[in-house]
Amino acid sequence: MNTRKSFTRLLMLFMAMLLVIFVAGCGGGGGGDGSALGSGTDKSITAYSLAGVTGTIDETAKTIAVTMPNGINVTALIATFTTTGTGVTIGAAVQTSGATPNDFTNPVAYIVTAADGTTATYTVTVAVAPITAKAITAYSLAGVTGTINETAKTIAVNLPSGTNITALVATFSTTGINVTVGASVQTSGTTVNDFSSPVAYTVTAVDGSTATYNVAVVVASLSAKAVTAYSLAGVTGTIDEAAKAISVSMPYGTSVTALIATFTSTGASVKVGAKTQISGTTPNDFTAPVAYIITGADGSTVSYTVTVSIALNSAKAITAYSLAGVTGVIDEAAKTISVSMPTGTNLTALVATFTSTGANVKVGVATQISGTTANDFNSPVAYIVTAADSTTLTYTVSVTTPVAVAAARGPAPVPLGLAGNFVILAKTAVSTTGTTSVVGNIGVSPAAASYITGFSLIMDSTNAFSTSSLVTGNVYASDYAVPTPDNMTTAISDMETAFTDAAGRATPDFTELYAGDISGRTLVPGLYKWGTGVLITGVGVTLSGGPNDVWIFQIAQDLTVSNSAMITLSGGAQAKNIFWQVSGQATIGTAADFKGIILSQTLISLNTGAVMTGRALAQSAVTLDANAVTKPAP
């Protein structure tokens, strides 16, 4: 009878040891798709490895660093990972843990998506160890992680009570090219060793140098019954061994009613109530603290109380904003809100309507109530949004009111068509002497490029245009490659049409004004007509009007601008709205300052040092001499 009892006790002890090994072997893993349970805004990568080499995760910087052994091909490595998000992608490619290969020659960005659609990006950088590398970077036995002392080159592994250590298989990663125990080559996850005594692992580098790590295994006593590691959905718990308490803080929004724990224990079995717990498999409801009963091989027990807390909501965005019914444009990246109110709106006491994911919103110390609180928006207003977890974000609201635009005075502008793409356009030639500066495009047609002289043209590789150090823009000619010839024909036709339009405007506001000598005068917007030439002496002329006002000067003979004469624009008048239709020749004197668009039926000549803001559009030639010609503001 005593013999039978002894056999029964030995059989029970053997079964207990098998259970311990099974439980330990289940620890540390996530789901097959790399996802741990997460919800709300949670979107972390909680574990990451490549070809068995564990990466170092910097959660703050959202980076993962992995050092691979020398000589490894990094162009098609498969990652094993766990995440609290609902999905992981690289670009548009969905990533499956343990299945999807990627090229890690350059850093790779993993995009993790949370249940609420928000994302976080982790950058994985893979380094290849030098030829001298020969470290063991990770080591475990029967699912129990060893503690590596790199300085002493030792590895300590504490196994549960009753573990048979005479034939254990190690899982490890190394930066060396091979690992041996004595003369036996070691294969991670395959090679069996006897750990009754310390085992020496010799790691060989690519250059042939070696390092030896001594692995010592300690088996817990029959009374051992500690929880040595504990996590929920990839979130590591804090174990207070003295108090036999484990605390885990889960991300905001996590459902705690069916969480699965991953744990290791030195005991023979683990239960919650009467339910046996299997690491990585058994779900529990953590709405209230959960008591884990750990039983040692000798039958003694200890209870660990696991308490789960939920982090406070960190959300603090302004998701919609309007003032007096005008919707603002929210730039979430810059944390700015812009609102364009109607002209004349009084900005001193506007009431905002807004929605926010935060717990409260303030301007300064004043709490803001949507649809109620008034603020002065003559200057930008800073809204401080506080989350439930007390973190804050500041959104700056800027309000603008368009300036009232006065009705344009004068005739309608002259349409230039494709001719408006050029600052200088001629039919027969464009020439320059001296150091001329042109801002805008130059074109000739039907004349060929050989009639553009003095610019030292450089042909573009397309042969459709050329460039010059004197021109900020392009130079076009009728003999360049398509589509330039057709475009130039159209531009010249549009220039001639514009001339005819300007010359044909009827019912002038002013006829033969000042007998053609407008020197020293101030001219208001309108249509001016002369049957003679027009002269502007050195005293210049002033054109006074608003930014949308238009002047058209119909000149039957020549336009002569004397040396040093200046055309002055006042009241916001713009060169783009001033049209000089000249049936004769237009001559801009030495050092004169001219504004407007010249539509000349013959030559346009700019003498030495003359400055022009506008366009020179000639039906014959344009000659330049150390001039500055700039296209008008749009």
Describe the structure in your own words.
By secondary structure, this protein is mainly beta. It is 7% helix and 44% strand. The strands form twelve sheets. Strands 41, 43, 44, 48, 49, 50, 52, 55, 58, 60, 62 and 64 form a twelve-stranded parallel sheet that branches. A seven-stranded parallel sheet has the order 45-42-63-61-59-56-53, with no helix packed on it. Strand 19 and strand 20 form a beta hairpin. The longest helix has 24 residues, at 2-25. The N and C termini lie far apart (109 Å).
Helix and strand topology:
Blueprint: H1 2-25, E1 45-50, E2 53-54, E3 56-58, E4 63-68, E5 77-83, E6 87-90, E7 93-94, E8 101-102, E9 108-113, E10 119-128, E11 136-141, E12 144-145, E13 147-149, E14 154-159, E15 168-174, E16 178-181, E17 184-185, E18 192-193, E19 199-204, E20 210-219, E21 227-232, E22 235-236, E23 238-240, E24 245-250, E25 259-265, E26 269-272, E27 275-276, E28 283-284, E29 290-295, E30 301-310, E31 318-323, E32 326-327, E33 329-331, E34 336-340, E35 350-356, E36 360-363, E37 366-367, E38 374-375, E39 381-386, E40 392-400, E41 422-426, E42 429-433, E43 437-439, E44 441-444, E45 452-453, E46 458-459, E47 466-467, E48 471-472, E49 475-477, H2 484-504, E50 510-511, E51 522-523, E52 526-530, E53 534-536, E54 541-544, E55 551-555, E56 559-561, E57 567-570, E58 578-582, E59 586-588, E60 593-600, E61 604-606, E62 611-618, E63 621-625, E64 628-630
Parallel strand pairs: 4-10, 14-20, 24-30, 34-40, 41-44, 41-62, 42-45, 42-63, 43-48, 43-64, 44-49, 50-52, 51-54, 52-55, 53-56, 54-57, 55-58, 56-59, 58-60, 59-61, 60-62, 61-63, 62-64
Antiparallel strand pairs: 1-2, 1-5, 3-4, 5-8, 6-7, 6-9, 9-10, 11-12, 11-15, 13-14, 15-18, 16-17, 16-19, 19-20, 21-22, 21-25, 23-24, 25-28, 26-27, 26-29, 29-30, 31-32, 31-35, 33-34, 35-38, 36-37, 36-39, 39-40, 46-47
